[in-house]
Amino acid sequence: MIPDGIGALVLDFDGTLADTRSSHEQALRVALQPHGVDLDHDWYGRHVGLSIHDLLAALPGGRSLPHDEIIRHSRTHLLATLHRISPVGCVVSLLRAARRDGLPCAVASGASRLLVDPGIDAMGLRREFAAVVAREDVTHGKPAPDLYLEAARRLDVPPDRCLAVDDAPDGVTAARAAGMHVLKVVDGHLAPTDESTDGAASRVVSGAGAPMPRGTLRRGGLRPGSARETAAAPHDAAPDTSAPRSADSDR
Predict the structure, then answer these.
(1) What is the rounded distance in angstroms from the CA atom of residue 125 to the CA atom of residue 130?
(2) Parallel, antiparallel, or unpaired for β 8-11 and 162-166?
(3) Which of 147, 129, 126, 130 is nearest to 138 (CA)?
(4) 147 and 122 Cβ atoms separated by less than 8 Å
(5) Does residue 228 surpass a pLDDT of 90?
(6) Phi-psi category of residue 141: left, alpha or beta, with phi > 0 → left and psi -120 to 50 → alpha
(7) Distance CA 13, CA 164 (A)
(8) Per-residue pLDDT tens over the stretch 187-206
(9) Residue 1 pLDDT
(10) Mean pLDDT value across the chain
């Protein structure tokens, strides 16, 4: 399931590893209602990869809102529903294949660690990750490449040998800017990010874990492969707990 030449797997969290899009949208909608703001579903879909701070800054009229109060309200709602969090099947299949192949894996999320860590624990996936990078750990969130670059640094694998998976346009942009090979989650399947790619078609891994074509990824797609080199990490490696650089954002 993992193409040749890939040395590590780096996953987004919300909407990629965990099916949280509807819960995050509803939490933000509920938090905005006391302030007379109705969150538009289509608008949210276009900005879903951003942290809540960045969402509020981009929201029409959002800069004048009490961000801290809205974030607290939204976070309380999300923490109360963490027990209902569910993984995205095709991504977990890819994660399991990477671990079987001895590849180190990381999460690179634009969300707050206060939500990402308990979410990973709720799905029973903590032992799969050698590093977890959250929004507080970098200066700039997606679409800047900082989160993905930091994940590669903690795994000690060059970015151009990392396979990133994200569901949001800003996340795909961030992973590409970091120099990683990129797959996106589309309707419960993994797909190449270059629509002109031949040979890989549009569906790479099904929710049931159908095999991925062999070969080496180029940025945005698949091409016939070269020999594979891998960097191993212990299956139960503890997540990196490096001191945060910034705490200006949260999801």
Answers:
(1) 11
(2) parallel
(3) 147
(4) no
(5) no
(6) beta
(7) 11
(8) 889 999 864 333 333 333 33
(9) 63
(10) 80
